[in-house]
Every structure is written in structure tokens, then in C-alpha cells.
């Protein structure tokens, strides 16, 4: 049995306290065929995602009998297993053994494709759905200024104007910590904290969002894979990340483009007309998605980068906090 | 070929266990809401229990056959007829080219009826399954519910088995007041819900909201006590957490409202899950009538839940059938 500190209750199957080089891990019963493995405390720490994805890969490679699949998220892995073949105690022990065998955190190298997506900021499609929201749902939404969410986004983050906000979105790589909710929807977090925009959600939520819309809520950026309801502040629109009809080579093997561990950048910046042309080229198969399949992510190098940029990131965070305090929330 | 004369309110192609292994890509398994009746129907006609068949929701569908097949209808009583003649549920029948199968309106408890055709529905396999997954517009027939004029290809009919029925004593009984076995979920007490919250959860007779479907079953609003005052960094409300994966069948509590995440549900999100419906009890959800039926959750542990699955697998076997 895994070492734990006695803090068990009905659903907490084991708690392994933090020790040198590893955070606390809590194993939670999640019904009769799932177990949730949680890292650290309930706080936002992107580096937890690297530990999660490192362990997730080890679990996939190991091929434990009775393990069906895993669902990585920002600080957790949901394990789907066959409890008639694999007992919870044995699953916990197997996860602990794998975690102990992982190389030291600072030396982890994670397979991480680099993908760049063209973006049309303040595009006509997201503006149209925002206009419908103002007409039918909420006339006085403070997050909508001049028919868009960009100007509010700039105000809330203490930026000069919408233009600077667009520059920030393009300035950082976005880390895909999880895919989910809708098919293929990525939860993307900024790797460069100097450009880490933060925003509240819509209130109430927006019944309409165009497919391909790009939005931010909290520290997280999402791309909408299908037209749907949504709560994120919308900035622009990109090309499809999900195509059930698999009309482009990028979707030949899988209608879902993005995976956990991918890095996404936005660019080039295009006009609405250019976006229409690119999207047509996606669907007629002539557009080639910009993907570096062989890229890897070096955790140690990234930790050094975080340290080098710490002061600047902290200065931006303080500026944001001051701005947020004088900005109304939806 | 199976011709759709009417798709009714919502009829979809499903297979079992659906699209397993894609939760990390945002895809719930889909498949039949009542996997017990679905698999029984397949077994009756001589198919593999997981073969693709039809899920008819709330009634009113009609199909025509273009060749000789064996069919069975299991699940809710929608007064099925072949060429206008009433047929029994849980029993396999021969049909010939030109015959029609009609399902009418619901008669008594239950909400979904399953049609198995010998050879199975031969729609393309997408990501490992033929099941319709409407949120992602994939699987089944063009990723959507059936409508008049659709032509469904059928597989080669092997050793089709007409003239069989499920032994009457083994036919599942439906009700309007369900007891659903559930296991405590990852955010149950003590650190997210209080013990009193969980006691309430496992004793209350919940009403199924009429706004319930294959993506989620909404239950009544309740003022939870909550073990935490806020959701911390994850948001203002104590039901908020940093996004994590959701188990299939989880009882997700968003603010005050519990929602059971059914087979087309969201895979990941930022709300707590207090319980998870046991795998061997998921079929009951498929037969509940939204806006009408009530359900209580009965707590079971992992070992008891595994027994339920074993009992169900025993039920779905040739020994449960007899000739007529």
C-alpha cells in the first residue's frame, strides 16, 4: 500500500504528503470505474501540468492491465479503469511506482508539438454573436464596449488599448494542459507570464459562439471547436481545430487537431477576408497546417526562463490587479 | 437496407460500449442510454450484444425493410407493430422485404425503446464506433438523429434467431420512482460537501427536470451547505474547482443544481462531482421520463458496484432466452 499520512475518508483513498522533489498527491475514489489523482493544492500552478503529463505518458506507456484510459487536466489525472480486474489499492501502488521512476522534474522532456494558427482579431463573426447577446440577453454588459470584448480586456488588464491586448495574445506560446468539455476543445495557458492576460467570464453566459472563436476566461484561453454556448471573452477567430468530415490532411487520422502538451501560437494576423480564404483552403485540402511534430518541451529550460522573467511578470501582475480593481465585472 | 419512414422525436444509431478511450480528447462514449435493453435486443436476433442498433426516444418512429431480417424491440412500451399487427416486446420476429415496423406513443413507464435488426446497422465506424455522438456530429448516420428518407445499410445477417423471447421473469421492470445505485464521487464529503449534504443526496427523492437529454439529466435545485466557503482560485462559488476530468455518469453539481452527466456529456469542467452512477445502474437513466419520474440514489461501494455489473452480464446471455 502507498505510504500515506492517515488522512483517509470515504472518498480519499490515499494521501501521499509532499517531500523533496514531489508535491502532495491525493488519490480520490471517483465512482466504481474512475479514480482522480490530484497534485499539490487547489492553486493555479502551470508547472503541475508538466508533472501531470509526465506521469500520464508513463501510465500510457506502461500498459497496466485493467487500465482503460487517462484524462489529464491542469493539476490532476482522471483514471478510467476496470475495477473488476484492477483493485483500487493496486492501481494506487502502480501509479506511485511509476511516479517514483520518473526522472527528476527539472530534467523532464515532454513531447510537445508546436502549432501556429492564423487569427483574425475582432472579426465579424464574433462581433455578430456579441451583438445578438447585447440585443437578446444583456444590454448593459460591462464587458462589451463598442460591440467587442477586446477593449474591456485591455481595460481589465491595465493595457493601453485593444491593439496592445492583441499583441499580448500573440506574444506568448500557449500550453495545452487539457482537451475536453467539447470534442477537441483545448484549455490553453500562457507560458510567458509577462503576457498572462486574466479575465472574468460572461454573466450570464452567451448562448452563441462561432466555431473557431478564440476567447479567454481566468488565465485560460479556449478555441471553440463547434458553434456553441460559451462564457469566455471573445477576441477573434481562427481556423478549424475540429473537423468531423476530416476534409484536410491535418484531420486525416483524427478529426481533433490538438492534444495535451501541445504549444499553440497565434499568427499570422489576418483580415476577415483572408480568414475566409484560409478556411476555404482548409476544407478543400489545399491549406497546410503549421505543425512542428517533433518539438519537445524542456522543463528545466522553462523553469530557468520563468526565473529570468519573474520580475517583469510580477510587475505586470501588479498592474493587472490595480486595473481590475477599478474595472466593473460582468 | 432499412428505410426510415419517420424518425419520430429522436432516433439514433448506437452501439455498445460506444467510443471508449477518447475522454482525453473531449469525447464521451455515446452508446445506448439503456445498455441493458439494447444488448438484450441484439442477443434476441442473434447479433453480438454490442452490435449497432436503434435507440428510439419518446416514441413515434417507422421503418421499412428491403430484405428478410429478424428484428426485436426491447425497452419502453411504444406499442410496436409489424405491418400494423401488434408485436410483443423482448421477442424476436421475422420480417420480409416490404414489411414495416412502427413504434407508437409511450404506453406506461419507460422512455426509450431499442430496435435490433439481424446483421446490425452497417454505418461507417468512426473513431472505433458506430454510435451517434451528436455534440461532435460524428458516428451513426451522418452524425445526427434519423429523419424521413434516410437509408440505413445493414450488415450481413448470419445465424439470425427468430422466435425467441426473454424469459418473462427476467424482463426488467420499469417504474416512475427509480432507485439508482451510485458510488461516492471525487468531491464528496468531507472536503467539498458536508456529511449532511451527502445524507440529503442519498435520501432525497429527486425529480428529473424536463430539460434532460443524452448530454445531461438535470435534478432539482438544492441549497447545499458546502464544506468550503468559496471555490478559491477556481471561482467565487464553492461548487467551483480547477477543471478536472468528469467520470461518465458523474453527478456534477453546478452551483445549486445537480446534473447527471449521461453518455453524450462533457468530459471535463470546473464543477464538483458528489457521486457517480454505478456502471450496472446506468441503464435505468435511459428509461426515466424527464419532467415526470423521480429517483433516489442508493449508496453502494466499489465492490457492490462490481457485483451489479456481473449480475447484468449474467442476465445478458443465452440462458436468459427461451423459444416461443
Features:
heterodimer, A: 330 residues, alpha+beta, Gyrase A, domain 2, 2 domains, 5-stranded antiparallel beta sheet, 8 helices, disordered N terminus, B: 324 residues, mainly beta, Cyclophilin, 6-stranded antiparallel beta sheet
Description:
The complex is a heterodimer of chains A (330) and B (324). Helices cover 30% and strands 23% of the residues of chain A. With 330 residues, chain A is an alpha+beta fold. Chain A folds into 2 domains: 100 residues, Gyrase A, domain 2 (2-Layer Sandwich); 213 residues, Cyclophilin. The N terminus of chain A is likely disordered. Chain B is elongated, with a radius of gyration of 20 Å. Chain B is mainly beta. Chain B is 11% helix and 30% strand. The longest helix of chain B is centred in the last third of the chain and has 14 residues. Chain B has 2 domains: 167 residues, no CATH class; 138 residues, Cyclophilin (Beta Barrel).
Topology (elements, then pairings):
The complex is a heterodimer of chains A (330) and B (324).
Chain A: E1 12-16, E2 25-29, E3 34-39, H1 47-62, E4 67-72, E5 76-81, H2 88-101, E6 109-111, E7 114-121, H3 124-136, H4 150-156, H5 162-171, E8 174-179, E9 186-190, E10 213-217, E11 220-223, E12 233-237, E13 263-269, H6 272-283, E14 290-292, E15 296-298, H7 299-308, H8 310-325
Parallel strand pairs in A: 7-13
Antiparallel strand pairs in A: 1-2, 2-3, 3-5, 4-5, 6-15, 7-12, 7-14, 8-9, 8-13, 9-11, 10-11, 10-12
Chain B: E1 2-6, E2 10-14, H1 35-45, E3 53-57, E4 61-65, E5 69-75, E6 81-82, E7 85-86, E8 92-95, E9 100-103, E10 112-117, E11 151-152, E12 164-166, E13 177-184, H2 195-201, E14 206-207, E15 217-218, E16 240-245, E17 250-254, E18 257-260, E19 268-277, H3 282-286, E20 294-299, H4 302-315, E21 321-323
Parallel strand pairs in B: 13-20
Antiparallel strand pairs in B: 1-4, 1-11, 2-3, 3-10, 4-9, 5-8, 5-10, 6-7, 6-9, 12-21, 13-19, 14-20, 15-18, 16-19, 17-18, 17-19
Amino acid at each position: 500500500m502507498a505510504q500515506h499520512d492517515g488522512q483517509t475518508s470515504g472518498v480519499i483513498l490515499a494521501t501521499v504528503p509532499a517531500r523533496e522533489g514531489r508535491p502532495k498527491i491525493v488519490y480520490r475514489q471517483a465512482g466504481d470505474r474512475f479514480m482522480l489523482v490530484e497534485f499539490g493544492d487547489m492553486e493555479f500552478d502551470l508547472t503541475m501540468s508538466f508533472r501531470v503529463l509526465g506521469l500520464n505518458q508513463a501510465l500510457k506507456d506502461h500498459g497496466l492491465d485493467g487500465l482503460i484510459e487517462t484524462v489529464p487536466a491542469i493539476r490532476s489525472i482522471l483514471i478510467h479503469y476496470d475495477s473488476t480486474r484492477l483493485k483500487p489499492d493496486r492501481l494506487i501502488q502502480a501509479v506511485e511506482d511509476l511516479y517514483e521512476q520518473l526522472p527528476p522534474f527539472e530534467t523532464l522532456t515532454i513531447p510537445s508539438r508546436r502549432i501556429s494558427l492564423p487569427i483574425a482579431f475582432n472579426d465579424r463573426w464574433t462581433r455578430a454573436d456579441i451583438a445578438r447577446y447585447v440585443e437578446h440577453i444583456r444590454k448593459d454588459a460591462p464587458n462589451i464596449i463598442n460591440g467587442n470584448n477586446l477593449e474591456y480586456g485591455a481595460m481589465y488588464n491595465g493595457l493601453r488599448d485593444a491593439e496592445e491586448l492583441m499583441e499580448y495574445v500573440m506574444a506568448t506560446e500557449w500550453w495545452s494542459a487539457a482537451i475536453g468539455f467539447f470534442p477537441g476543445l483545448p484549455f490553453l495557458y500562457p507560458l510567458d507570464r509577462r503576457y498572462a492576460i486574466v479575465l472574468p467570464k460572461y454573466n450570464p453566459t452567451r448562448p452563441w459562439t462561432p466555431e473557431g472563436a478564440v476567447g479567454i476566461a481566468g488565465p485560460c484561453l479556449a478555441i471553440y471547436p463547434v458553434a456553441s454556448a460559451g462564457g469566455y471573452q471573445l477576441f477573434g477567430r481562427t481556423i478549424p481545430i475540429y473537423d468531423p468530415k476530416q476534409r484536410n490532411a491535418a484531420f486525416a487520422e483524427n478529426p481533433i487537431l490538438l492534444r495535451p502538451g501541445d504549444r499553440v501560437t497565434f499568427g499570422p494576423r489576418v483580415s476577415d477576408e483572408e480568414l475566409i480564404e484560409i478556411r476555404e483552403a482548409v476544407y478543400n485540402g489545399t491549406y497546410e497546417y503549421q505543425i512542428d511534430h517533433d518539438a519537445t518541451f524542456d522543463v528545466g529550460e522553462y523553469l530557468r526562463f520563468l526565473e529570468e522573467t519573474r520580475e517583469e511578470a510580477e510587475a505586470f501582475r501588479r498592474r493587472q490587479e490595480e486595473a481590475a480593481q477599478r474595472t466593473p465585472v460582468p | 437496407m432499412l428505410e426510415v419512414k419517420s424518425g419520430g422525436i429522436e432516433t439514433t444509431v448506437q452501439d455498445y460500449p460506444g467510443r471508449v478511450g477518447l475522454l482525453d480528447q473531449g469525447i464521451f462514449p455515446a452508446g445506448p442510454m439503456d445498455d441493458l435493453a439494447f444488448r438484450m435486443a441484439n442477443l434476441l436476433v442473434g447479433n453480438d450484444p454490442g452490435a449497432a442498433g436503434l435507440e428510439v426516444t419518446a416514441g413515434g418512429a417507422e421503418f421499412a425493410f428491403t430484405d428478410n431480417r429478424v428484428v426485436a424491440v426491447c425497452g419502453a412500451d411504444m406499442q410496436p407493430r409489424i405491418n400494423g399487427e401488434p408485436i410483443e416486446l423482448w421477442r424476436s420476429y421475422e420480417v420480409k422485404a416490404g414489411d414495416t415496423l412502427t413504434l407508437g406513443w409511450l404506453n406506461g413507464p419507460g422512455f426509450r425503446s431499442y430496435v435490433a435488426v439481424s446483421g446490425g446497422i452497417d454505418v461507417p465506424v468512426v473513431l472505433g464506433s458506430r454510435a451517434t455522438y451528436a455534440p461532435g456530429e460524428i458516428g451513426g448516420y451522418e452524425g445526427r438523429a434519423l429523419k424521413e428518407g434516410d437509408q440505413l445499410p445493414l450488415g450481413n445477417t448470419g445465424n439470425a434467431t427468430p422466435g425467441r423471447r426473454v424469459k418473462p421473469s427476467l424482463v426488467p421492470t420499469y417504474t416512475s420512482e427509480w432507485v439508482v445505485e451510485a458510488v461516492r464521487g471525487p468531491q464528496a464529503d468531507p472536503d467539498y460537501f458536508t456529511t449532511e449534504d451527502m445524507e440529503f443526496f442519498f435520501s432525497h427523492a429527486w425529480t428529473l427536470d424536463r430539460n434532460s437529454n443524452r448530454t445531461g439529466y438535470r435534478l432539482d435545485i438544492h441549497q447545499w451547505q458546502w464544506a468550503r466557503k468559496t471555490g478559491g482560485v477556481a471561482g467565487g462559488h464553492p461548487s467551483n474547482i480547477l477543471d478536472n476530468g468528469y467520470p461518465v455518469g458523474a453527478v456534477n453539481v453546478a452551483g445549486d443544481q445537480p446534473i447527471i452527466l449521461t453518455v453524450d456529456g462533457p468530459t471535463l469542467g470546473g464543477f464538483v462531482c458528489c457521486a457517480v452512477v454505478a456502471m450496472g445502474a446506468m441503464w435505468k437513466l435511459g428509461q426515466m421520463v424527464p419532467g415526470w419520474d423521480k429517483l433516489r440514489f442508493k449508496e453502494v461501494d466499489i465492490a457492490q458496484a462490481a457485483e451489479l455489473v456481473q449480475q447484468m452480464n449474467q442476465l445478458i446471455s443465452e440462458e436468459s432466452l427461451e423459444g416461443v
